[in-house]
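User: For my dataset I need records formatted as: sequence, then structure tokens, nothing else. Please produce one.
Assistant:
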Amino acid sequence: MAKVRWAPGIEFISGALKKINKKSQHAADQEMLLATHRVAATTSKDCTRIYLRGIESVTRSTPVTADEQAQRTRFATVARAVQARKQDLTKIAGDLAAFNAQKDNPNGKKTMRSYLWMVCDAELG
């Protein structure tokens, strides 16, 4: 098995180092370079792996279901509501006060963004 040794100062790398341009007419000829780093996978210090994948492993093999499409629509709706609420000057002070009041609770949201997602999700029902 090959070893990956990073330059001094780089502990590990995890994620896509090179992606496939799916819109390109040459997408079938391109390859994705993916590095993974998993500490819990082994007791060895060598827990970084690199994979080379083609377009077949990146493209979806099943069609999008109606439930999945509904979830995507819901996510997009809440994301737009969060962006709008972040820029609404009439709600910023109240949201900040409510966020600070709940953040130290056991189930409180620790970031303002996650708090706004919770609020906007609850508002949209």
